[in-house]
Design goal:
- The structure is a single chain.
- With 206 residues, this protein is an alpha/beta fold.
- The protein is built from 8 helices and 5 strands.
- It has a 5-stranded parallel beta sheet, sandwiched between helices.
- The longest helix is centred in the middle third of the chain and has 20 residues.
- The radius of gyration is 18 Å and the shape is globular.
- The N and C termini lie far apart (54 Å).
Length: 206
Amino acid sequence: MAASNHLFKENYTVSRQEREQLNGHTSFTIWLTGFSGSGKSTIAAALDQWFYKRQIRSYITDGDNTRMHLNSDLDFSREGRKENIRRVAEVARLFNDAGIVVVSSFISPFEEDRITAKAIVGAAHFVEVYISTPLEKCISRDTKGLYAKAKKGEIKDLTGIDSPYEVPSNPDIVVDTTIDTIEASLQIITDWLLENKLQAVAELKL
């Protein structure tokens, strides 16, 4: 008998809407996708600071940190990547249910996995941000030295070298850090959020 047959959903008395009301803002997930070196982590940190200064409760989840702990048992095979995204999407959903804004920074190269993440979080609470910085620029930056290692054969299945990246078909926001500075990228994203997701905090000093 499947383990799921022995599970029962608990419905607690404090709702997500009540937690959002307590916090003074809605909760949702901002999903940053793009090549390694595209600027995802830097933009995630800038967003987190922006939220903090405006008393908006937020938290960052990123590929390296989750793979060091929560997903330390996963490899970078197709199945390992798929499970990695499934797990972090479930974490984002839980944070959102607690009334917290999540900034998820993951290469997440496959469209199928991003669609799965959106379904888990909930389409109404999922903001896909494509960091469209070209691969050539990311390789020239090589901020973590991963591309150099991949070219030497020290790393397998690195996105952009020997594993593909599928461009999002319909992202909510697109920024390119070869054109937009981090400050400009932050402005583009937060302008969209203020119009579409953060109406509840419009009265805060911005």
